[in-house]
Design goal:
The complex is a heterodimer of chains A (238) and B (428).
Chain A: E1 20-25, E2 28-34, E3 47-50, E4 53-58, H1 64-70, E5 83-87, H2 93-102, E6 107-111, H3 115-126, E7 132-135, E8 152-157, H4 164-175, E9 176-187, H5 188-191, H6 197-210, E10 213-220, E11 228-235
Parallel strand pairs in A: 5-6, 5-8, 6-7, 8-9
Antiparallel strand pairs in A: 1-2, 2-4, 3-4, 9-11, 10-11
Chain B: E1 5-10, E2 13-18, E3 23-28, H1 32-40, H2 51-54, E4 60-62, H3 65-73, E5 78-80, H4 83-91, H5 93-99, H6 106-162, H7 175-185, H8 193-198, H9 203-214, H10 223-257, H11 259-265, H12 267-277, H13 280-284, H14 288-293, H15 297-306, H16 320-323, H17 327-350, H18 358-373, H19 379-395, H20 412-427
Parallel strand pairs in B: 1-4, 4-5
Antiparallel strand pairs in B: 1-2, 2-3
Bound molecules: S-adenosylmethionine.
Chain lengths: 238, 428
């Protein structure tokens, strides 16, 4: 996939063979993904018809990945048929949009440790979307994942834990392809409350470099999200 | 020639391969979720039939640690697979599934794995939830105990501080507010308007308290005594805090494990019903008639023994809609509530706690119906009341205290009700 820059305001950024688009609704530009399950709105997001296709608006205030794209994430490492390992799937808000983008030939392994939200993930999202494999397990124990196979192209990690970077690295070692992409959401507050958020992110980035990752971009997510940053990196040396 | 072999435990079955990764034999699970789970829990019955054919191999390797442990105890030379081999299995899982004849092609294998993940995860969600109900029972029981503790310590604190400032007793009802006033002010002369209003006391009441403190008939208090009272106040504040946490915890756990029961009964009454039943699973197999009188067992046995009227409700009496209803409606409403709770518990257990709002709707309709239809006491109710009054009078000489009867023993409110009745009976 070619490296492209997605700026906040350009209109024709996505190549037309992707299942993601900018859509202008009421004069406002929105991200939207092609609904894999037409008619189904996952978390109350608007459905928009364009010709015969139905798109789901992707709310950057609800999803950090959408926020990152709006903030200018350089590359969207997702295309039709991509395989994704998603840690911290929660109720499936972001997972559902990734599921749209990778389409029926792609796969999303969705790991979530909380049974409470796990149940919603299964009922509202995973059971309706045939490219999602729900794994209700602790991301600290990748050995206990079931139904996972092969290697993934993208590992997305948003688990809001102190040791999230280590957990992400361990999962990459087991499941991410060589040169594959990782997007790591850093909750700047949960790692160290007293530190300057910028510094927190940089320290985590350094740890990734020490473990064979190449850092491509570091983003903060304001105004969509105050306490989070995102690191975009690739796994170069196993 | 003696060979090695590998036993692969996969989501869909067990396969045995030789060193050249050729299939020796395989067994597809009839019910993958149950069998896979059993093996992960160290139950090797799925593999029992293979054991004799395994004895001819030199070394055996497996990707399942539990299985290795179990089979080694049976005297097999079996080892946990090397890391690279384990990785190979995950990476090429689809191929292995096809090789073992569990799937016919890759897309078939993927769909089977996904189905497995959904079924297995659903069971995980349910099983952990089943244990959560035991925790919610502990929570609701400790909530009830905390209430007693707060009450006991709080009363002592009030009485003791009352020696110093008796007038405040009837001006402040809330025990936690009372404790905080002691905590912050100490002696009554330090109780000022701001302090009280900051604690949420109404302005007019606050003025009354300050006023009373100036003209109090209470005695002086030594620092030593005050210090101890303050410690008691601390205790009340801490326990009240814990009580708050527990309440929230019960609420959110109930939302997870039994949202439908919670909807009908409120979180705390729902949790008490589960506690009485023993577990959510036990509740789910109870007939509505049993649920209706859960918590009134004593009254029920007495009724069976003495021929008195059976109880109309147990814990359900704590439901606001029942204890606020006129007496002659309570039995009917309790029966309607119990019927819906029985269904709700089954949905919570067997349908993974999927929310079914229609239950509450139909219940509310039914209750409205009862309220309209039975506005006035029914003749049967009046007759029963009269009879039981007569019976009480007749039986009085046999008892030092008249027997308690009617619904709801074992529950706070019900006991209160029972006592009131006793008093009245003495009067008439
Ligand atoms: C901030 S939320 C993720 C929100 C989600 N990424 C989205 O955008 O829709 C973090 C999630 O990670 C889950 N989580 C926390 N620790 C985890 C662990 N060790 N393994 C798996 N999931 C975990 C939490 O239960 C929670 O649902």
């Amino acid at each position: 996939m070619s490296e492209k820059t997605f700026a906040y305001s350009n209109s024709n950024d996505f190549s037309p063979d992707l299942f993601i688009k900018w859509i202008t609704v009421d004069g406002e530009r929105n991200l939207a993904t092609l609904n894999l399950v037409p008619g189904d709105s996952v978390y109350g997001e608007k459905l928009v018809k364009i010709d015969k296709d139905e798109y789901r608006l992707w709310d950057p205030f609800r999803s950090k990945l959408a926020g990152s794209i709006k903030k200018g994430l350089k590359n969207i490492p997702l295309k039709i048929g991509s395989k994704v390992l998603y840690l911290g799937a929660s109720t499936g808000t972001t997972v559902s949009h990734i599921s749209d983008i990778v389409g029926n030939n792609g796969l999303v392994f969705a790991v979530e440790s909380s049974v409470r939200v796990g149940r919603e993930l299964i009922e509202n999202v995973a059971s309706k979307r045939s490219n999602i494999v729900p794994i209700i397990e602790d991301a600290r124990k990748p050995n206990s994942y079931f139904s996972i196979f092969g290697r993934v192209n993208l590992l997305y990690c948003d688990i809001a834990q102190q040791d999230q970077t280590d957990i992400a690295i361990e999962n990459c070692r087991m499941f991410l392809e060589d040169g594959g992409t990782m997007l790591l959401v850093i909750k700047t507050r949960s790692i160290d409350v007293t530190k300057d958020p910028k510094k927190v992110i940089e320290e985590e980035a350094q740890r990734l470099k020490d473990n064979g990752f190449k850092i491509h971009q570091i983003l903060t997510l304001e105004p969509f999200d105050k306490d989070h940053g995102l690191i975009y990196c690739t796994f170069e040396n196993r | 020639m003696v060979q090695n072999c590998s036993i692969l435990v996969l989501e869909l079955g067990i396969g045995i391969l030789n060193d050249n990764k050729e299939l020796i034999l395989s067994k597809r699970f009839d019910d993958p979720v149950i069998s896979y789970r059993a093996i992960k829990n160290g139950d090797y019955s799925e593999i029992l039939e293979f054991i004799d054919s395994l004895r001819s191999f030199k070394n055996i390797f497996s990707n399942d640690e539990g299985l290795v442990f179990q089979l080694r105890n049976l005297g097999l030379d079996i080892y946990f697979m090397k890391e690279e081999h384990l990785k190979d299995i995950i990476e090429n899982k689809l191929r292995y599934l096809i090789l073992c004849k569990f799937s016919s092609n890759e897309s078939d294998a993927i769909q089977s794995l996904r189905k497995f993940a959904i079924d297995f995860s659903s069971i995980n969600v349910k099983n952990i939830s089943q244990k959560l109900d035991l925790h919610v029972i502990q929570s609701i029981n400790s909530l009830d105990e905390l209430d007693k503790i707060i009450n006991v310590i709080g009363s002592r604190m009030r009485e003791w501080y009352g020696l110093h400032f008796p007038e405040m007793d009837h001006l402040i009802q809330n025990i936690s507010t009372y404790a905080q006033i002691i905590r912050i002010a100490g002696k009554r002369e330090n109780i000022v308007l701001d302090l009280l209003t900051n604690l949420g006391v109404e302005e007019r009441r606050a003025e009354m308290i300050v006023d009373a403190s100036k003209r109090s008939k209470g005695g002086d208090i030594t620092d030593e005594n005050l210090l101890i009272i303050k410690k008691l106040a601390d205790e009340v504040i801490n326990q009240t805090e814990l009580r708050k946490i527990l309440t929230i915890h019960v609420d959110s756990t109930m939302e997870t494990i039994a949202p439908n029961v919670k909807d009908l009964l409120t979180a705390s009454v729902g949790a008490r019903i589960i506690a009485k039943a023993g577990s959510i699973n036990k509740l789910a197999i109870m007939p509505a008639s049993t649920i209706q009188i859960l918590g009134a067992e004593k009254a029920l046995f007495r009724a069976l023994k003495t021929g008195a009227r059976p109880p109309k409700h147990g814990i359900l009496f704590q439901h606001p809609i029942i204890h606020s209803a006129p007496k002659w409606q309570r039995g009917k409403i309790a029966r309607a509530v119990a019927a819906k709770v029985a269904i709700a518990a089954r949905v919570d257990v067997y349908r993974n706690a999927e929310k079914v709002p229609i239950l509450l709707e139909t219940l509310n309709n039914r209750i409205m119906e009862i309220q309209q239809k039975y506005k006035e006491p029914t003749p049967k109710y009046i007759q029963n009341e009269r009879q039981s009054r007569d019976r009480d009078r007749d039986s009085r000489p046999d008892h030092r205290y008249p027997p308690r009867r009617g619904g709801g023993f074992g529950s706070k409110y019900a006991r209160k009700g029972g006592k009131k009745k006793n008093k009245r009976r003495f009067r008439d």
